[in-house]
From TrEMBL:
InterPro entries: FAD-bd_FR_type (IPR017927), FNR_nucleotide-bd (IPR039261), Riboflavin_synthase-like_b-brl (IPR017938), SIP_FAD-bd (IPR013113), SIP_fam (IPR039374), SIP_rossman_dom (IPR007037). This is Siderophore-interacting protein. The lineage of its organism: Bacteria, Bacillati, Actinomycetota, Actinomycetes, Propionibacteriales. Residues 4-113 form the FAD-binding FR-type domain. PANTHER family: FERRIC REDUCTASE, NADPH-DEPENDENT, NADPH-DEPENDENT FERRIC-CHELATE REDUCTASE. SUPFAM superfamilies: Riboflavin synthase domain-like. It comes from Aeromicrobium duanguangcaii.
Amino acid sequence: MANRIDVEMTVLRTEELAPRMRRVVLGGPAFDEYLDAHLPATDTYVKLVFASNDGQGDVQRTYTVRWVDAEARELAIDFVTHGTEGFAGPWATSAKPGESLRFRGPGGAYRPDPTADHHLFIGDESALPAIGASVAVLEPGAAATAFIEVDGPEHEIDLPTAGDLTIHWLHRDGDAPGSTRLLDEAVRAWEFPQGRVQAFVHGESALLKSVRPYLLDGRVDRKDISVSAYWRCGETEEGFRAWKKQQQDAVIRPGGPR
């Protein structure tokens, strides 16, 4: 990460965005240090640091910075919560003003290119903060389409934008998250627009083997697609990182898959 920092910021307030999505707004004396390192990318992420339950040191969880308000000296991080499991979700569920949160970073690269003819966003709840940050910077009238998978209508959230954005909310209606079937089928059924399409495809790791090859099959130029697995069904973040490293090693290993 460029301009790597390690700061501790203070919880200012929290907001309930949906039944399992909570926004934590942070500020305090360390805000200026973070602002000096903040990236123009709309998928800017930081590594949140939590103490482990077993006393074996810190654990890190990766989260997108939803927005930064330099004038108010605040930044927001949106958390998908899943009950008492894990570290970040339970912390966000109980976070109160005055508590502190330590994080490292930032990193990130993607930002909508204003010269693209159409902007395409594909993801699940884990990608909502980055999708929200991205559509927020679209130029007035910019053509954009988003396919977003959530549990049901009550999990849809507002995504303010000046762009001409069409959102397709895909509801699991009780199905377990992680299959990416809904996203894959919806994107394949969509009438692809003419012109240059810039695509942002982030979420469960199966998207790399379903939606990504479909888009790269003559629909989106490789330089115009941002693809990232944010999580893997059935894996903790530690297991997910190990899986990602295996995938990277397989790509660069001589004679390995390309």
